[in-house]
Amino acid sequence: MFRLDGKRALVTGASGGIGGAVARALHAQGAAVALAGTRQAALDQLAAELGERATVLVADLSDAAATDGLVKEAERLLGGIDILVNNAGLTRDGLVLRMKDEDWQRVLDVNLTAAFRLSRACLRGMMKQRWGRIVSVTSVVGHTGNPGQANYAASKAAIAGMSKAIAAEVASRGITVNCVAPGFIATAMTDVLNDEQRARIQGQIPAGRMGTSEEVAAAVAFLASGEAGYVTGQTIHVNGGMAML
Amino acid sequence: MSDVAERVKKIVVEHLGVEEAKVTENASFIDDLGADSLDTVELVMAFEEEFSIEIPDDAAEKIATVKDAIDFIGKKQA
């Protein structure tokens, strides 16, 4: 079940914890993967670890031309894209009263606008081949909110709305569009939280622990599979019961 | 038949999976050839690619029949 042999996947933010785990999971299921990110060294290392069926693409997703170029290059290298995983994301936390326009805009540009551009660019080929999977990694805070993350929460909630709209547009073409919303996952992004924040959040998780990147990746791999063809416009929450939505 | 007309018809046949005989100049993509709104967008994109032209949204909206497409592309290329 859930094999991805012969499928070609583009994973953004592949140099990060969750992105790396997603790339490994799709690759383990048989997919060829294009690893996109900003940190070449980390991407090269991951590609070397995966061996065959892995290529590296360095791109800055805040740049519109680079985003379109990324899809073209991935299609050229892989011969097409069957699976797009919008995983790249960043935070610029701060209370709204002190949040600068540039911190708002930067988060929206990379987390939301890039996901839109990548989805649009990939849909062309997916429509032609009558098969496609778009999976975006969002966040529990897009659904529950979180103080200090107005920009991040907005970007993640927006992806969920956008995904539903795209899902409705392209469902008749064998393309599904879904989200995976991780809760508190142990990654470099959560390492910046202080002990008090960590303890507070962990106390809200019925599972009593942080999740792992692999647990998020498993949900992405499921949504990318042929077996998930009738699941579209949905969000799978991977949060240890932190928010039951 | 002009070269443009032939290429347009070929794209329509391929994209909509309809018989060539049905793709007459007066055939409407939606009413006669069974296209949905997404198909018409795909067709316009295919025309843009095939003829290396840009078809703005307001012009695309007016392309309802095979002849509309042939005329528009013919004018663009002239």
Q: How would you characterize the overall build of this protein?
A:
The complex is a heterodimer of chains A (245) and B (78). With 245 residues, chain A is an alpha/beta fold. Chain A has nine helices and seven strands; from the N terminus they run βαβαβαβαβααβαααβ. Chain A has a seven-stranded parallel beta sheet with strand order 3-2-1-4-5-6-7, sandwiched between helices. In chain A, strand 1, helix 1 and strand 2 form a beta-alpha-beta unit. Chain B has 78 residues and is mostly helical. Chain B contains four helices and no strands. Chain B starts with a helix and ends with a helix. At the A-B interface, loops of A face helix 2 of B.
Task: Set out the fold topology.
The complex is a heterodimer of chains A (245) and B (78).
Chain A lengths: L7 E4 L5 H12 L3 E6 L2 H11 L3 E5 L5 H15 L4 E4 L14 H29 L2 E6 L3 H4 L5 H21 L4 E8 L5 H4 L3 H8 L10 H12 L10 E4 L7
Chain B lengths: L2 H14 L20 H15 L5 H6 L3 H12 L1
Helix pairs in contact in B: 1-2, 1-4
Q: How would you name the oligomeric state of the polypeptide chains in this document?
A: heterodimer
Rg of chain A, Å, rounded: 17 Å
Shape summary of chain B:
globular
Structural class of chain A: alpha/beta
Strand order of the largest sheet of chain A: 3-2-1-4-5-6-7
Q: Ends of chain B: how far apart?
A: 16 Å
**Total beta strands of chain A:** 7
Describe the global form of chain A: globular
Low-confidence stretches of chain B: none
Largest interface: A-B, 6 and 4 residues
- The number of distinct helices of chain A, counting runs of at least 4 residues, comes to 9
List segments of chain A where confidence is low: pLDDT < 50 over at least 5 consecutive residues.
Answer: none
Essential attributes:
A: alpha/beta; 7 strands; globular; B: 78 residues; mainly alpha
Short description:
The complex is a heterodimer of chains A (245) and B (78). Chain A is of the alpha/beta class and 245 residues long. Chain A is 47% helix and 15% strand.
